[in-house]
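Exercise 7b. Backbone tokens:
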């Protein structure tokens, strides 16, 4: 075993909460977090006790250890909050996540620590080390470390309030799943396997046959795409978009007010200005300028797409005057079937979950020249599969796939760090928490192509955490880029899904074993490229909403009016009264004003992808260069520099604009977020 492996694995003791029984017991979880926070405090105490002239070796190393313990505790409490089977553990995990956030906030306002870091002599330090220290000091100043003690205490209490509100907001969405009832007739249009999973039962009171559907993705998305019944789609839409309503309405208003107060104390006009100050975007004004370009680039195409779909729908349903927000996905699907001879259900039998998983792993392995081996390492639930990442025989990382819905589990799709990697010290580990079809005995888990794209997306994050997790410091490892660079690696990997050769390497019919036919792929790509501009405008809607809510005085905000007016100004589809999408717009907690990240990073990702040789996506030199200059860097340098290193210039809109007008869209955008 090479020395690195020994070093990386020898410190793995106690770093998994679930190995301490924390997935089953609230007490075990609390004790495990206690131990991490104690180690965090001990490292800070040692840092402040250093008497010699400060160097990276005698001071930054201790600060970095403090960060590592905090991120271990935060990451794993966060995961257990999303996945633990028992409510008691999830409740405890929420408390622990809050406790960790408070420790992070206290650290960000800790003047003696700031002074210690500012005193480090960086002569002869590597550029990455220098960047780490400079970025950390900037973060301290933005947090308010140079304010007087009373103000810092007030900031700490505001941070505490904001953290608590954000966690409550997320939990309400996670646990707000609703069910609706349907008659068997209303399920017309839905796929066979969907019907098989949802048998009708006799209602004892009325004697009528009834089907129960949940608002979970595998139940909800097919209804919005395939169900012929407008009444059913509307009921599903309203249930889905009121999951956390009314509870989250006041929570969101309080959160916005708290964030604005923090921004004011720190001398910023708005929260959006504060939240962008250390990002690639730098200010709310720059975000607005970017959004104006996005508006310009997508307006004409979206108008054309809407017109085509509306004309088609009118031919099918004479008398129809407009298409509403609950029917957009359905009519898109019908239009694609007709115009491109493509039925999105026709590809599902070629995408059974297991084949897709194998295909995504194989694609990533070949692109990044690594090997994945199943591992028997423990995880938080028997449904989780664990893999280890090997590079030239060396253990380089580990990841956890928790891919199907479970009761009480978070309903969304995400990649989360587990252990922040540090070269020679900590093995990078990350997890995917998803809600794809399948996972039940006998259910092949037939995926829509938008599901497969999502899988590639999340796996892009995973590889960023692992390949970027070999840095010298935890503070610049993996995801530690500017927040508005983080969706570049994920959206980059999405593009690989469009490649015919690559798809045929894994897409096989779950019953016959037949390879996904080329003609079907071509039809799928053509159909998929229709609606891109319109989809981008729904992103523009979410993005502008996220910015607007955080770029004004929050007193007197009318959430219903803002979400409706904005929708009507940016979207041609009819708004539905009773839509409370803001109450379940989960990204408002994590991204706050910075949801623009997706669109901004899409522009960068498409420019990056255009550097790859379409004839040899997995073997061309761009792959190795991308890995080295972007992924492996983690947060070792500013995103702006990584863009210039890889492209030899700043990003341009041209690849994005031609992608937008190539006639593409993903049905994943049907309900947004
Ligand atoms: Zn993402």
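Sequence design result:
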């Amino acid at each position: 075993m090479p020395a690195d492996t020994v070093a990386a694995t020898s410190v793995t003791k106690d770093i998994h909460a679930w190995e301490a029984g924390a997935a089953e017991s609230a007490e075990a979880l609390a004790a495990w977090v206690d131990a991490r926070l104690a180690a965090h405090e001990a490292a800070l105490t040692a840092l402040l006790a250093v008497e010699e002239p400060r160097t990276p070796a005698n001071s930054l190393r201790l600060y970095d250890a403090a960060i590592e313990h905090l991120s271990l505790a935060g990451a794993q409490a966060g995961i257990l909050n999303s996945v633990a089977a028992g409510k008691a553990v999830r409740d405890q995990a929420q408390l622990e996540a809050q406790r960790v956030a408070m420790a992070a906030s206290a650290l960000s306002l800790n003047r003696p620590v700031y002074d210690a870091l500012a005193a480090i002599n960086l002569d002869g330090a590597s550029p990455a080390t220098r960047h780490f220290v400079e970025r950390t000091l900037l973060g301290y100043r933005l947090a308010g470390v140079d304010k007087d003690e009373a103000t810092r205490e007030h900031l700490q209490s505001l941070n505490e309030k904001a953290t608590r509100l954000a966690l409550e907001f997320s939990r309400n969405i996670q646990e707000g799943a609703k069910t609706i009832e349907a008659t068997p007739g209303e399920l017309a249009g839905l796929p066979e396997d969907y019907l098989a999973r949802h048998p009708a039962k006799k209602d004892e009171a009325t004697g009528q046959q009834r089907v129960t559907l949940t608002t979970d993705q595998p139940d909800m998305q097919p209804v919005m795409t395939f169900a012929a019944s407008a009444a059913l789609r509307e009921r599903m839409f309203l249930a889905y978009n009121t999951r956390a309503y009314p509870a989250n309405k006041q929570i969101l208003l309080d959160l916005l007010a708290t964030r604005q107060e923090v921004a004011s104390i720190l001398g910023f006009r708005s929260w959006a200005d504060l939240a962008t100050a250390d990002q690639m975007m730098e200010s709310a004004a720059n975000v607005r300028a970017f959004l104006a370009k996005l508006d310009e680039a997508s307006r004409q195409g979206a108008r054309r797409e809407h017109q085509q779909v509306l004309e088609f729908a009118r031919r099918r349903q004479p008398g129809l005057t407009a298409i509403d927000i609950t029917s957009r996905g359905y009519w898109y699907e019908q239009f694609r079937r007709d115009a491109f001879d493509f039925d999105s259900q026709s590809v599902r039998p070629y995408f059974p979950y297991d084949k897709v998983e194998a295909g995504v792993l194989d694609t990533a392995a070949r692109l990044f020249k690594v090997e994945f081996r199943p591992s028997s390492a423990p995880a938080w639930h028997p449904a989780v599969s664990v893999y280890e990442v090997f590079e030239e025989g060396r253990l380089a990382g580990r990841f956890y796939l928790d891919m199907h819905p479970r009761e009480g589990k978070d309903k969304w799709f995400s990649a989360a760090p587990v252990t922040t990697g540090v070269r020679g010290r900590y093995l990078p580990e990350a997890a995917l928490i998803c809600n794809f079809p399948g996972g039940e005995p006998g259910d092949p888990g037939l995926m829509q192509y938008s599901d497969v794209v999502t899988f590639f997306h999340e796996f892009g994050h995973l590889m960023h955490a692992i390949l970027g997790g070999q840095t010298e410091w935890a503070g610049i490892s993996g995801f530690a880029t500017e927040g508005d660079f983080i969706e570049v690696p994920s959206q980059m990997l999405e593009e690989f899904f469009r490649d015919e050769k690559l798809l045929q390497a894994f897409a096989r019919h779950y019953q016959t074993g037949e390879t996904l036919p080329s003609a079907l792929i071509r039809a799928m790509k053509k159909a998929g490229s229709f609606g891109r501009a319109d989809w981008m405008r729904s992103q523009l809607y979410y993005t502008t909403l996220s910015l607007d809510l955080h770029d004004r005085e929050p007193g007197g905000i009318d959430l219903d009016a803002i979400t409706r007016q904005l929708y009507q100004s940016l979207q041609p589809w009819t708004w539905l009264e009773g839509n409370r999408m803001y109450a379940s717009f989960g990204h408002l907690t994590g991204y706050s004003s910075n949801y623009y990240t997706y669109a901004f990073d899409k522009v960068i990702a498409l420019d990056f992808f255009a550097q790859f040789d379409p004839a040899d996506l997995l073997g061309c030199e761009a792959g190795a260069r991308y890995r080295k200059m972007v992924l492996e860097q983690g947060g070792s340098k500013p995103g702006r520099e990584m863009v210039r290193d890889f492209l030899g210039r700043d990003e341009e809109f041209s690849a994005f604009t031609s992608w937008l007008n190539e006639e593409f869209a993903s049905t994943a955008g049907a309900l947004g977020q």
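Instructor comment: Residues 284-316 form the longest helix (33 residues). The pocket of zinc ion is lined by residues 457, 461, 487, 490 (CB under 6 Å).
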